[in-house]
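Q: Given only this backbone (562 positions), what sequence would you predict?
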């Protein structure tokens, strides 16, 4: 086309001496010259060509992306089990099973020598993978029903292990009930939360656990409740007891949550520990909701989030209509081919080339924007409209009549950010007392500020008696208050010498007794940090799983047992 325009330009008469026949009118001077028209057409073509090339490249990349996504969704024979942003693959030899009935779960357990249960993949380690190359991951997302039953004077929810926490909360909210504390992330599944010890606002969901139904190593289905001697091992079991089929939890009459954020002067570490000590005093019962401190380290801002529960309803009133469902399609679960591998390597190169001081400065505008959106009272309606899942407005729990939580474009944007940056969730847990020791632990985390992107949260939480809980304390001892410090960090930065290896080595020497969350990161360099009552836990595991069928990939040596 461009060549045609150029030839047409060359054929046009040039110069001002051209003579025209008397019957032919001379061209108007107001019209553009033919040469200029040809040049404009050529420039137009030159602009279109790069744009077309970009469009073609974009279409090709989109095709590769869609192919990887469909490989996982459609259970292609070459599909690998990955987490929700396509990382922590279980390898090509691991089979993915997606049963829809109890009998199919039992058959899958009997069929493979090594088995692990998984669902939405919101974990940042390899514990969702079986230890054997010929093992299987059992995807339990099909088990997602909820039944509300009376239990004495109260209520209980009997729910399938694969239901998302957001959908579980919506279904019980529609019945005029609620979980004791709202889910920290609505995309987590119930079975994964119970197995790893999910928590929010100072309490774990396992504290309201009443019973579990589990498929054992030989396919036998067994229920364990609070009266069972093995309940303390099964409550936070990391999936070592078997495949969880259903969970029975106490649910309570609805109460709304009010929320506000207060900016405070940033004190030194001693002052921060003192504030956390005062926060601990306000936690007087299981009905108390814990506040939290939020740090924007790049901009030097500290805020306290106040979560204020109002009184529970005296009568349980069902919603006249079901609440809209929480549907998260997981559009970023790729990690199946060349596109994901190339992007991951390119991201690693970018992070390795940018100096850490520059990375810290890049966080400043991001922190400012996030803090205003998250904390400003003037933007409360915006948060509600966006479905901002970090506040009660977005969760639909800030009004007298709950509206529930939905997967919105704000949740989509949050996941896009996680995918592009390769963010991983990290949690460092240690006792509040002795306070001088807690100061040292916190100083170590703050010294690795370059890993704490967007913000860093600190919550207080009382100890539990579940044998493998990250806040375990022996039942014959006084309860202990733990600090739970959580943040997100780019995996590429964690892989550098100044990343995970530096943080965990300094915690090992300067923060004895620190722990991690079973579903989050830092296990690559610190899997041998011990907590809980491992001997008692492994004794129970040896009876439930004498063959070691449910042992995960890269199990810490102190938890291998059988």
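A: Predicted residues:
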């Amino acid at each position: 086309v461009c060549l045609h325009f150029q030839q047409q330009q060359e054929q046009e008469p040039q110069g001002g001496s051209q003579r025209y026949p008397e019957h032919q009118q001379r061209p108007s001077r107001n019209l553009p010259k033919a040469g200029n028209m040809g040049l404009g057409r050529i420039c137009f073509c030159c602009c279109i060509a790069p744009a077309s090339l970009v469009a073609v490249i974009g279409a090709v990349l989109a095709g590769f992306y869609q192919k990887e996504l469909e490989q996982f969704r459609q259970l292609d024979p070459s599909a690998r089990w990955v987490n929700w942003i396509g990382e922590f693959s279980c390898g090509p030899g691991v089979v993915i099973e997606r049963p829809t009935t109890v009998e199919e779960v039992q058959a899958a357990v009997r069929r493979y020598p090594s088995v692990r249960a998984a669902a939405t993949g919101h974990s940042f380690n390899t514990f969702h993978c079986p230890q054997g190359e010929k093992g299987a991951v059992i995807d339990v997302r099909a088990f997602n029903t909820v039944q509300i039953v009376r239990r004495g004077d109260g209520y209980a929810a009997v729910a399938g292990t694969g239901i998302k926490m957001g959908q579980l909360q919506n279904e019980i909210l529609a019945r005029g009930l609620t979980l004791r504390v709202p889910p920290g992330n609505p995309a987590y599944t119930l079975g994964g939360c119970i197995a790893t010890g999910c928590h929010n606002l100072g309490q774990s969901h396992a504290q309201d656990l009443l019973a579990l139904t589990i498929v054992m190593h030989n396919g036998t289905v067994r229920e364990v409740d609070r009266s069972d001697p093995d309940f303390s091992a099964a409550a936070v079991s990391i999936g070592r007891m078997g495949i969880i089929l259903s969970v029975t939890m106490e649910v309570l009459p609805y109460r709304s949550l009010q929320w506000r954020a207060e900016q405070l002067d940033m004190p030194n570490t001693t002052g921060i520990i003192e504030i956390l000590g005062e926060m601990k005093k306000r936690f007087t019962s299981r009905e108390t909701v814990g506040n939290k401190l939020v740090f924007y380290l790049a901009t030097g801002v500290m805020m306290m989030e106040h979560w204020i529960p109002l009184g529970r309803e005296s009568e349980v009133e069902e919603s006249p209509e079901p609440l809209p469902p929480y549907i998260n399609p997981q559009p970023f679960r790729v990690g199946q081919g060349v596109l994901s591998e190339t992007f991951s390597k390119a991201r690693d190169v970018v992070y390795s080339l940018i100096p850490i001081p520059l990375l810290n400065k890049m966080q400043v505008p991001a922190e400012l924007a996030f803090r205003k959106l998250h904390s400003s009272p003037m933007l409360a309606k915006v948060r509600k409209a966006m479905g901002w899942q970090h506040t009660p407005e977005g969760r639909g729990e800030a009004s007298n009549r709950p509206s529930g939580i939905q997967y919105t474009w704000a949740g989509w944007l949050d996941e896009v950010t996680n995918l592009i940056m390769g963010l991983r969730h990290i949690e460092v847990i240690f006792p509040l007392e002795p306070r001088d020791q807690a100061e040292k632990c916190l100083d170590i985390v703050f010294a690795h500020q370059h890993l704490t992107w967007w913000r860093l949260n600190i919550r207080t939480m009382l100890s539990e008696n579940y044998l493998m809980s990250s806040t375990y304390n022996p039942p014959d001892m006084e309860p202990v208050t733990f600090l739970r410090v959580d943040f997100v960090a780019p995996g590429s930065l964690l892989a550098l010498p100044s990343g995970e290896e530096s943080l965990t080595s300094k915690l090992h020497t300067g923060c004895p007794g620190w722990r991690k969350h079973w579903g989050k990161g830092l296990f690559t360099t610190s899997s041998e940090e011990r907590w809980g009552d491992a001997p008692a836990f492994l004794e129970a595991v040896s009876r439930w799983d004498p063959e070691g069928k449910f042992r995960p990939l890269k199990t810490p040596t102190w938890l291998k047992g059988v």
